[in-house]
């Protein structure tokens, strides 16, 4: 190291020079520390940036995972809504089927009551006829068996009245009397029976009356047979005649022919209409 020669001229200059040397020494000693601090700053800044990037990356992954779960929840919710709608539709269909079955059951129960009542009345009529036959010495109801005069023809506007050997037959289309496929009278049917019962009570007040039920050969819509429907309809007519004109039940009887005795072919709609009928038969034999 080279020596530095300093010329000191006086005390004040000596003190000044001493201060300069101190400052210089302090600068020289502090310089490495200062340089070290300056060089350390880029390293610390890099560590801080790296940590921030890692934190941001973790947050991104968390957000992506959350979005994935939300998407899955939305899909699950949509599936549940579709399944719920399907269940509700099936429940509605089942409710409609139950309502329909209840209606059919009520109709069947009504027909069953009518058939039961018809059977009871028929049994009573048979018992009465048997008793009457026995009381008359074994005679049966036949046309003009006692030599009575032939029955006089009557006319009922709008209806067919014809002579069949010794009896008179009055034909009533069941389409005018009953609701389709039932033994339930229509309003017009009640009026028609009122006219018929009035004509019979005037012309044949005490003659035996037969009420025969006929159907076509078509399928029955309510699960009943042709004979059952014909019997129920004939029984309804008997009850109306008894109620309106007070014909005694011993004077009347019902017969169910079903589809066994068509008047015309059932091959056409018009033919089937003509075969669906009630025939009221007036016998020459008197009830009293």
Quick structural summary:
The protein contains five helices and five strands. It has 288 residues and is of the alpha+beta class. Strand 3, helix 4 and strand 4 form a beta-alpha-beta unit.
Number of domains: 2
Radius of gyration: 57 Å
Give the oligomeric state of the chains in this entry, treating copies of one chain as homo and distinct chains as hetero.
single chain
The percentage helix is 55-70%
Overall mean pLDDT score? 78
- Terminus-to-terminus distance: 171 Å
Structural class: alpha+beta
- Give the strand tally: 5
CATH top level class name of the largest domain:
Alpha Beta
Strand content: 5-15%
> What is the 3D shape?
rod-shaped
The low-confidence parts are 1-9, 33-44, 131-147
Q: Provide the spatial order of strands within the biggest beta sheet.
A: 1-2-5-3-4
Number of helical segments with 4 or more residues:
5
The name CATH uses for the topology of the largest domain is 60s Ribosomal Protein L30, Chain: A
| CATH architecture call of the largest domain | 2-Layer Sandwich
CATH homologous superfamily of the largest domain? Answer: OmpA-like domain
């Amino acid at each position: 190291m080279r020596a530095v020669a300093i010329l000191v001229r006086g005390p004040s200059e000596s003190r000044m020079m001493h201060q300069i040397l101190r400052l210089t020494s302090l600068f020289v000693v502090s310089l490495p520390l200062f340089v070290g601090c300056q060089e350390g700053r880029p390293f610390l800044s890099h560590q801080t940036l790296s940590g921030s990037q890692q934190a941001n990356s973790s947050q991104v992954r968390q957000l992506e995972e959350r979005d994935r779960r939300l998407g899955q929840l939305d899909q699950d919710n949509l599936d549940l809504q579709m399944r719920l709608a399907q269940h509700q539709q099936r429940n509605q269909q089942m409710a409609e089927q139950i309502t329909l079955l209840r209606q059919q059951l009520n109709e069947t129960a009504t027909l069953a009551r009518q058939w039961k009542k018809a059977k009871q009345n028929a049994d009573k009529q048979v018992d009465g006829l048997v008793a009457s036959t026995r009381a008359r010495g074994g005679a049966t109801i036949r046309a003009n068996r006692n030599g009575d005069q032939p029955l006089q023809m009557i006319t009922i506007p709008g209806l067919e009245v014809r002579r069949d050997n010794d009896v008179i037959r009055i034909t009533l289309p069941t389409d005018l009397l009953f609701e389709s496929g039932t033994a339930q009278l229509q309003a017009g049917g009640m009026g028609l029976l009122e006219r018929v019962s009035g004509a019979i009570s005037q012309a044949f007040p005490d003659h035996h009356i037969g009420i025969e039920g006929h159907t076509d050969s078509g399928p029955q819509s309510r699960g009943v047979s042709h004979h059952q429907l014909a019997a129920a309809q004939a029984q309804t007519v008997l009850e109306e005649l008894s109620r309106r004109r007070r014909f005694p039940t011993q004077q009347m009887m019902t017969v169910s022919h079903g589809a066994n005795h068509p008047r015309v072919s059932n091959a056409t709609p018009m033919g089937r209409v003509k075969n669906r009928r009630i025939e009221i038969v007036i016998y020459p034999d008197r009830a009293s």
